[in-house]
Structure to design on (1140 residues):
């Protein structure tokens, strides 16, 4: 299969503008006759559904949550990037484009990323107009802060709750369209299959999660905005409900899964504390501005800490290894996420982990507290302040900057991070991979689109902080409303297909069969226990660092686990009721297939880039070794029960020069 | 730690419900929801039906979790959702009563899961700024006083969990509704539709079957985001102004 | 006029009626207390009886008093209606523990009903007897130049009965709780609530809730004990 990216001709900076002014349109009278299905109500889904409805399309929107506002975009903390250059610090569309390409380790599509940078400025305007309460300066204008991997201040934020505020903005726009009758909203409905009619995506099968009704829904096209698949690792910063099912059903119907092995492991999360752990909590990247990462130099100190005989505070300065500052003097504690995560893993693998499980490093604010305390004392005109006074003043400054995060840390761990250094460890956070889409965000299945984290398009092999929110809203507000017309302009003569067509009946039957299979199995193990085992395999063999041998072993283990799942899973109750175990079974079954494709992709990509680190491909200093001559492509996987197949889209770099990232 | 749980079980909206007793062995580092996970895992091992409860992000921001723990929405800790409540705040041998949100406007779906779609409908009645995508002017075109933006933000931190309604002896949704009204009304972008919004949202709130506010203040005490009671007074003021103005 | 009916029948409108009538009744309590304090004057009831005559015969006061009756009736009916409706809207209560908020704020319906009962007894004993029966003796009033009903005597007889004194103490205790929540709550309903004013209003409310009932209750107690000034 040849993959056409459909990137328009012309100079990079003019492609989108040119394309927009020449693309096919759907006239208002025809828009009223056309219906669109949008699955998912996060930033991408809610913004797409509301904007398409504003344009006049009839939108049907679905979420498995009880309300569109619960989508996991809500949990994003740090901020959203935009090339506004309000700070007058040299930012530009090109610089945002370049930073994103470089941050993604040169594995994303130039034209898509440039368009993302272009529309980033419109997003901020739109959100402000909707009433998103961004942080402001005393002069009443918008405030910015910096994020990792860049040299300008372009991140807009609303304290530590930027995702929440942006999602509520999009949610309100969506609710407005619902009130106007332009969006039909289906809460607590989970998409369980995609329906193709004559090769085009024309509908979906859903299960009403309250009463188990299996429903058929048809439209002129289907838009998936269903988020990432990080929960394949069981433990991640994703919400408990985040899943791959909708996207995976599309893959089973012929869509391709692109770069599935590109997973972002976030370096600063609260470590696992026990086997019962259900999820991991992120501590914002902004903490690395002031926190210093370290482990003890001596193994006997590590032992004493693990036994509870010592705390981090008891280790003298000379016996601490500030390994990021040692290994990457230029960027220090602010190296990009992939680099910081791997360094933490290395320290723990060597036996320096500082909690009972051996999987934690310190993130220490004591020097920041002293530093801020001294400055504060100085500005208050205190000469020779006592150490206690300095600490008191410094603590106040740190509290003002990171108070809510410190509070959250204390709630979860029961330890006071102002007094004891925080313990952190990397955790799965975001998936750069996703459904393959072209420049129009259309998959290789005509009429099937994919937006936001569910597609693969903009972040390459590693995503920069504050860029996920940007992409979700760019896709939903400013890209799909245009590009969807390219497809729909050819559909104006077609009516919404009848749900009585054989394709719908067949899809519905498949869904029912699978549900019945789960319910009738009456095995001996819970869905959760399978999910946990899958997560362990994925983390062990396809986690922060990978090698061919482990990946092969992992693949075998997943296949065995999948067989066992279909033999021995226990799902209680019936279909005709609210049945969370049945929902989970449907989702875990899909993770069990996706996991295999991720491993295959990791095995196939014999290089290290971004979040994908193959142990066989590293420099002498243990840094990632990219192989641009062979692997400058997108690996798009076609599912097959026996042997999934890879299709390649060559990545052409006409505007940036491929370089090795260095943070030393 | 060994705990006794008294949990409300109810098959569906119309079925009769009652308390069931369970025993569970928990660890003090677990979150409250992880303790319920352990309970459910044990039930499933014995091929019994697990307890249904709503949850998702487990980091206190999505607003999905909704448990009344010993009579208190989200449990005993101030400014904390049930998912962020940890078992170290309980003692070995404790008996914990867990009930669903109680209010007629939030019918029970199953066990501890309730239907809070009334909140969505309140938002639909006017909880937005009527601006289409692409119509916006530059984000910095209207300066907004830092403190005012901060106040709007504080009202906007509401996670729509419904603890205010659950806490209110009257089942009133005034704190939720007023937080949204004030978030938008405080900002120049939202002010344009202010009068219409407050009238419509209050009408909708009444229509959805929420109770009447009597200024008990339990909503504010139990709110995991500590939304201020002042929001209610401000909404009242806006409502009277809208109703009594000549427009 | 639809705007007015929709305002007054909305949940906030009904709160408004409760707040306005409640605060109006608070103002009456102050007037009533000032008048009653004359019972403590050691003049055999002359000042009090003149005051009682004035209050029942001066036209503007009479008009206000009808407003007062209307206020009591409206506040009671609306209060009871809200109380019943809210119980219904809450549905099932919790078994695991009590709701947050002061005891008074959660029991305004009960407190209000008790106060209403107290008002009936109180008015039946004095106001009704004075206005609609001839059971009160006439005494001459020097100041007015004609005879007036000796309400003072009626009060004295009543407050010699310890059971009635106890009933008044309880009645005022109930009133104190009702005011403890009601006074400040009325202002919140009117939309007066912010960082600057609320603490002041709350303090005034608490002081009011203590001073007024105490002022009322010392009258029967001192009477019973035979103390006057």
């Amino acid at each position: 299969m040849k993959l056409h990216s459909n990137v328009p001709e012309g100079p990079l900076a003019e492609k989108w503008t040119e394309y927009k002014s020449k693309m096919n349109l759907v006239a208002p009278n025809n828009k009223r006759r056309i219906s669109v299905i949008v699955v998912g109500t996060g930033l991408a889904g809610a913004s797409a559904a509301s904007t398409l409805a504003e344009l006049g399309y009839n939108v049907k929107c679905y979420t498995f949550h009880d309300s569109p506002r619960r989508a996991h975009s809500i949990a994003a903390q740090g901020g959203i990037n935009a090339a506004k250059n309000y700070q007058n610090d040299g930012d530009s569309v090109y610089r945002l484009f370049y930073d994103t390409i470089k941050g993604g380790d040169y594995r994303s599509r130039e034209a898509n990323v440039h368009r993302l940078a272009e529309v980033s400025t419109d997003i901020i305007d739109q959100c402000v107009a909707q009433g998103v309460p961004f942080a402001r300066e005393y002069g009443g204008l918008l405030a910015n802060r910096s994020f990792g991997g860049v040299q300008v201040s372009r991140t807009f934020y609303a304290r530590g709750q930027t995702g929440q505020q942006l999602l509520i903005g999009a949610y309100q726009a969506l609710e407005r369209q619902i009130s106007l009758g332009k969006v039909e909203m289906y809460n607590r409905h989970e998409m369980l299959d995609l329906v193709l009619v004559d090769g085009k995506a024309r509908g979906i099968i859903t299960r009403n999660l309250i009463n188990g009704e299996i429903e058929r829904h048809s439209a002129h096209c289907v838009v998936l905005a269903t988020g990432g698949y990080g929960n394949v690792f069981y433990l991640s910063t994703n919400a408990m409900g985040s899943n791959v099912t909708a996207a995976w059903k599309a893959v089973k119907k012929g869509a391709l899964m692109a770069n599935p092995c590109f997973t972002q492991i976030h370096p600063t999360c609260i470590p696992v504390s026990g086997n019962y752990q259900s999820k991991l909590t992120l501590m914002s990247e902004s903490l690395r501005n002031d926190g210093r990462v370290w482990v003890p130099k001596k193994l006997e100190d590590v032992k004493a800490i693990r036994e509870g005989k010592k705390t981090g505070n008891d280790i003298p300065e000379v016996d601490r290894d500030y390994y990021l500052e040692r290994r990457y003097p230029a960027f220090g504690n602010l190296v990009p996420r992939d680099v910081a995560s791997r360094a933490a893993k290395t320290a723990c693998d060597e036996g320096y982990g500082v909690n009972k499980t051996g999987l934690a490093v310190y993130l220490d604010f004591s020097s920041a507290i002293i530093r801020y305390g001294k400055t504060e004392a100085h500005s208050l005109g205190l000469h020779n302040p006592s150490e206690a006074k300095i600490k008191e003043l410094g603590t106040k400054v740190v509290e003002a900057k990171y108070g809510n995060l410190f509070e959250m840390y204390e709630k979860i761990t029961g330890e006071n991070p102002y007094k004891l250094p925080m313990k952190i460890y990397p955790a799965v956070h975001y998936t750069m991979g996703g459904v393959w889409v072209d420049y129009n965000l259309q998959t290789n299945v005509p009429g099937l689109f994919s937006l936001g984290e569910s597609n693969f398009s903009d972040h390459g092999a590693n995503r920069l902080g504050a860029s996920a929110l940007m992409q979700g809203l760019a896709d939903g507000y400013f890209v799909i409303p245009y590009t969807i017309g390219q497809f729909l302009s050819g559909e104006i003569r077609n009516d919404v297909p009848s749900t009585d067509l054989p394709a719908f009946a067949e899809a519905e039957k498949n869904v029912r069969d699978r549900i019945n299979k789960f319910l009738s199995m009456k095995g001996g193990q819970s869905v959760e226990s399978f999910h946990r085992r899958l997560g362990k395999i994925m983390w062990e063999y396809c986690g922060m660092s990978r090698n061919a041998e482990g990946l092969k072993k992992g693949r075998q283990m997943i296949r065995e686990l999948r067989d066992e799942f279909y033999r021995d899973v226990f799902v209680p109750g019936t279909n005709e009721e609210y049945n969370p175990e049945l929902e989970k079974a449907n989702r875990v079954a899909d993770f069990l297939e996706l996991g295999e494709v991720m491993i295959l992709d990791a095995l196939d990509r014999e290089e290290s880039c971004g979040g994908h680190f193959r142990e066989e491909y590293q420099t002498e200093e243990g840094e990632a070794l990219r192989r641009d001559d062979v692997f400058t492509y997108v690996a798009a996987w076609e599912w097959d029960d026996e042997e999934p197949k890879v299709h390649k889209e060559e990545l052409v770099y006409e505007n940036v020069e491929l370089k090795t990232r260095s943070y030393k | 730690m060994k705990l006794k749980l008294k949990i409300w079980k109810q098959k569906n909206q119309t079925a009769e419900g009652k308390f069931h007793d369970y025993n569970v062995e928990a660890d003090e580092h677990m979150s409250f929801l992880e303790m319920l996970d352990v309970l459910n895992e044990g039930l499933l091992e014995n091929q019994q039906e697990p307890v249904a409860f709503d949850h998702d992000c487990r980091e206190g921001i999505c607003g999905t979790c909704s448990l009344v723990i010993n009579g208190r929405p989200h449990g005993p800790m101030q400014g904390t959702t049930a998912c962020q409540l940890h078992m170290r705040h309980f003692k070995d041998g404790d008996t914990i009563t867990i009930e669903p949100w109680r209010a007629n406007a939030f019918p029970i779906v199953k066990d501890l899961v309730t239907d809070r779609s009334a909140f969505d409908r309140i938002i639909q009645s006017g909880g937005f700024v009527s601006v289409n995508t692409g119509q916006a002017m530059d984000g910095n075109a209207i300066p907004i006083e830092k403190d005012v933006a901060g106040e709007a933000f504080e009202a906007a931190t509401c996670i729509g969990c419904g603890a205010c309604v659950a806490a209110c002896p009257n089942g009133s949704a005034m704190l939720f509704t007023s937080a949204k009204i004030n978030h938008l009304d405080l900002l120049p972008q939202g002010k344009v539709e202010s009068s219409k919004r407050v009238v419509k949202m209050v009408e909708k709130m009444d229509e959805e079957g929420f109770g009447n506010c009597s200024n008990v203040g339990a909503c504010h005490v139990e709110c995991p985001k500590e939304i201020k009671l002042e929001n209610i007074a401000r909404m009242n003021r806006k409502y009277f102004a809208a109703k009594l103005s000549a427009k | 006029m639809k705007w007015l009916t929709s305002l007054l029948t909305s949940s906030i409108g009904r709160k408004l009626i409760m707040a306005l009538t409640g605060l109006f009744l608070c103002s009456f309590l102050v007037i009533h207390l000032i008048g009653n304090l004359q019972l403590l004057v050691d003049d055999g009831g002359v000042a009090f009886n003149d005051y009682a005559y004035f209050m029942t015969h001066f036209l503007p006061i009479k008009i206000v008093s009808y407003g007062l009756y209307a206020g009591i009736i409206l506040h009671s009916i609306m209060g009871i209606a809200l109380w019943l409706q809210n119980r219904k809207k809450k549905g099932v209560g919790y078994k695991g523990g009590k709701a947050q908020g002061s005891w008074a704020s959660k029991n305004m319906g009960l407190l209000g009903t008790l106060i209403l009962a107290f008002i009936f007894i109180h008015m039946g004993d004095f106001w009704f007897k004075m206005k609609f029966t001839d059971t009160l003796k006439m005494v001459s009033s020097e100041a007015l130049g004609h005879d007036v009903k000796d309400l003072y005597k009626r009060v004295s007889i009543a407050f010699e009965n310890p059971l009635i004194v106890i009933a008044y103490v309880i009645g005022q205790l109930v009133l104190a709780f009702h005011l403890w929540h009601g006074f400040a709550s009325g202002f919140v309903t009117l939309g007066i609530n912010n960082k600057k004013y609320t603490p002041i209003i709350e303090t005034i409310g608490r002081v009011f809730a203590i001073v007024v009932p105490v002022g009322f209750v010392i009258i029967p107690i001192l009477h019973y004990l035979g103390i006057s000034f």
Chain B touches chain C through 51 residues (CB under 8 Å). The mean pLDDT of chain B is 96.
